[in-house]
Specification:
Layout: E1 3-7, E2 15-22, H1 31-40, H2 42-49, E3 59-63, E4 69-76, H3 87-104, E5 109-112, H4 124-139, E6 146-151, H5 158-163, H6 165-174, H7 195-203, H8 205-219, H9 229-234, H10 240-251, H11 255-261, H12 266-274, H13 282-291, H14 296-305, H15 315-325, H16 331-340
């Protein structure tokens, strides 16, 4: 059931289906509609002519033609008339009917544009809120689909400017840009022993040998006998997968609750759950830390088991630290913040 917002040109997104914000005729137009028709080629228009149009709030499906998708789902969004003419209900119907059509045709990945937010004048922030709520509502009962909301370009909403004001301050206080150290100067070569020293060593070989043995003891990393490889492997700590299983049991939640909280799909979670030596990508590891409601120390411990750490010189890491230290485990709010700062998102990713 993963859901993510990404920045991209929807005509370049590889998915089972992409959704076209079409007009009622389905014969192409401006904005996203025109871009999809141009990228798909004349075959799309020829098929759309046979459909006889589409009412507002409903959806129709065609082939993908030259696009990197199997299907194009065409839906007609409402024109904004002040918000008192049923626009929200019609916009919700666009997302619902499109997703139902995708599910009927066996689509596992679906990419939406922000419907009605362009030429149809639906206020951007309200259109975004309806899109997220509608998609997440549908995904609650559909575990086998991943949905992407594709935004073109970068825009920070005024609501996010207010919501993330404290995060901005946290970043300003804690972000430490990486410092690249100057190359280390080469150490001067040790001087060759003098003729007198070489001569003395011929008559005091025991003293020279004792000196070398003493230096060897101080240089030795361990005074005990080194462990064998088998002994070292036998002392391995709990793995990433094992810690996740333990924390799920301690919380008393189901596997399904965990992977839904983490915004990852059932297949990926199954890989992690069934392979004690599985090493996930960092956003997936962090997503599971969020799903398991770990504190900062536990988060660092879990990440270390996957070979990762949190750094004060990485914005992604500081954003994660901010949300976990404030005990805000809403994965979609965290992803909103990561998206605003142009950072990788948590959970499954199309990129």
């Amino acid at each position: 059931m993963p859901f993510q917002i990404i920045r991209n040109d929807i005509t370049r997104v590889s998915a089972d289906a992409i959704v076209n914000a079409a007009n009622a005729s389905l014969l192409g137009g401006g904005g996203v509609d025109g871009a999809i028709h141009r990228a798909a080629g004349p075959g799309l228009l020829a098929e759309c002519r046979k459909l006889g149009g589409c009412p507002t709030g409903q959806a129709r499906i065609t082939g993908g033609y030259n696009l990197p998708c199997k299907y194009v789902i065409h839906t007609v969004g409402p024109i904004w008339r002040g918000g008192l003419s049923g626009e929200r209900a019609a916009l919700e119907a666009c997302y619902r009917s499109s997703l139902e059509l995708a599910q009927k045709h066996g689509c596992e990945t679906v990419a939406f544009p922000l419907i009605s937010a362009g030429a149809y004048g639906y206020p951007y922030e309200q259109a975004l809120a309806v899109a997220k709520e509608s998609i997440l509502r549908f995904l609650q009962d559909c575990e086998d689909m991943t949905v992407y909301l594709v935004l073109y370009g970068w825009q920070r909403t005024s609501s996010n400017q207010y919501r993330f004001a404290r995060l901005d301050q946290f970043l300003q206080r804690h972000f430490e840009p990486p410092v690249f150290a100057a190359p280390m100067a080469m150490s001067a070569p040790k001087p060759e022993p003098s003729k007198k020293q070489r001569f003395a060593s011929l008559f005091h070989p025991k003293e020279e040998s004792a000196k070398r043995e003493q230096e060897a003891v101080y240089a030795s990393p361990s005074l005990g006998d080194p462990l064998s490889l088998e002994e070292l492997l036998g002392q391995m700590d709990e793995s990433f997968s094992e810690m996740v299983k333990r924390k799920i049991a301690e919380l008393g939640i189901t596997n399904a609750e965990c992977y839904k909280r983490a915004n990852i799909d059932k297949k990926l979670f199954s890989k992690i759950n069934n392979d004690p030596h599985y090493h996930p990508k960092k956003p997936t590891a962090v997503a599971l830390a969020v799903a398991l409601r770990l504190d900062m120390d536990e988060t660092r411990e879990l990440l270390s088991k996957a070979g990762f750490a949190l750094s004060r010189s990485d914005k992604f890491d500081i954003i994660i630290e901010y949300f976990i230290s404030t005990r805000n485990y809403d994965i979609f709010e965290i992803n909103d913040a990561l998206f605003d700062y142009d950072q990788p998102l948590l959970g499954n990713s199309l990129l």
